[in-house]
Design brief:
Structural class: alpha+beta
Strand content: 15-25%
Distance between the termini: 72 Å
Oligomer: single chain
Order of helices and strands: HHHHHEEHEHEEHEEEHEHH
Bound molecules: adenosine-5'-[phenylalaninyl-phosphate]
């Protein structure tokens, strides 16, 4: 009986729910419960008067112990049950459960915006491959194998002599070969360079190339398109500067720099001297048109290679380019746009 008493106390201590307590009650005091059977199945006729008295007394004690402790546990379970009860009721004033929605990455948002702006100016949007031939990435852009300009873009070479596209200019001749002249198109895409990474340089970043080929295209057309682009993206006055720039696939070539919108042009860790190199551009070199089977005596064109990731930095005030590829949801959540 002492063993039964200890076992019962242990079971009650482990009971967590009203149902647990009910199961214990049945186990000990139910019709076939341990205590019930002990009383029913003991053959009292075989016991002496003193044994009957001693055994009966202990049995009654055990029954009382079981009844009392189980009743207390039932009460306790009821009380805790009562406490949780209201939470199960339907509360119509509760806000609905919040579903987490995916959102567009700020670079994607910027890219879609650019596509929209350029489509409004009659440009076709095209995509080129990330893994590119040496021919389209360099040769067809007037950068032969021994040309020092190859050093301007540290490149990831694959074992099959292909490269991870170092710039979206690699799409220029591909597109012109396919569509011929006249042509107006942009090619947003990912670029890869073996770079020393810092606040404004990544090894994987986005550019948006633009190409216009038609009769009598001049620098004036190029500047008009750049102005429209910048006013539509920023929707306020921004300061830019145009300076000569060298790229073998344009002649003349320019660098269009944006006055840094993070420091207001004072100079900071993002821009260095107050200016961000944003859109190199120029008139397409006649030799590139020839590579694309377009007669440079009949047609001329301009091209630009906008730093899309840097544009997103300026647009959203992101000081460090590394945040874009960081995978840190806390960063992305700040720009959440769902479409
Ligand atoms: C080029 O890639 C040329 N293909 C651009 C061009 C196109 C010139 C058409 C003339 C005509 P550049 O290496 O400067 O040029 O890169 C262009 C832009 O991409 C830079 O101004 C900058 O905004 C961005 N960029 C370049 N390297 C990185 C980098 N490591 N991380 C982030 N952005 C970069």
């Amino acid at each position: 009986m002492e063993t039964i008493r200890q076992q019962l106390a242990g079971d009650l201590a482990g009971a967590k729910t009203p149902q647990d307590v009910e199961n214990i009650r049945v186990k000990y005091l139910g019709r076939k419960g341990i205590v019930t059977l002990l009383a029913r199945e003991t053959d009292f006729s075989k016991l002496s008067a003193e044994e009957k008295k001693a055994f009966g007394g202990k049995l009654n004690e055990l029954k009382a112990f079981a009844t009392e402790h189980i009743a207390a546990a039932v009460e306790a379970a009821k009380q805790s049950g009562a406490a949780v009860q209201p939470q199960r009721e339907l509360d119509l004033t509760m806000p609905g459960s919040n579903r987490m929605l995916g959102a567009l990455h700020p670079i994607t948002t910027t890219q879609l915006e650019l596509e929209h702006i350029f489509q409004g100016m009659g440009f076709t949007v095209l995509r080129g491959p990330d893994v590119e031939t040496e021919y389209y990435n360099f040769e067809a852009l007037n950068i032969p194998g021994d040309h020092p300009a190859r050093d301007m873009q540290d490149t990831f070479w694959l074992t099959n002599d292909m490269v991870l596209k170092t710039h979206t200019s690699a799409n220029q001749v591909r597109a012109l070969e396919r569509f011929g002249a006249p042509f107006r198109g942009i090619f947003p895409g990912r670029c890869f360079r073996y770079e020393a990474i810092d606040a404004s340089h990544e090894n994987t970043f986005y550019q948006c190339e633009g190409v216009v080929v038609d009769k009598n295209i001049s620098v004036a057309n190029l500047i008009a398109v750049m102005k429209t682009l910048l006013s539509e993206v920023f929707r306020r006055d921004v300061k830019v500067r145009l300076r000569p720039g060298y790229f073998p696939f344009v002649e003349p070539g320019f660098e269009l720099d944006l006055n840094c919108l993070i420091c207001g042009g004072k100079g900071c860790a993002t821009c260095g001297d107050g200016w961000i190199e944003l859109i190199p551009c120029g008139l397409i070199h006649p030799r590139v048109l020839e590579y694309a089977n377009i007669d440079p005596d009949e047609y001329s064109g301009f091209a630009f290679g906008l730093g899309l990731t840097r544009l997103a930095m300026m647009k959203y005030g992101v000081r460090d380019i590394r945040l874009f590829n960081s995978g840190d949801v806390r960063f992305y959540e700040q720009f959440a746009v769902t479409m």
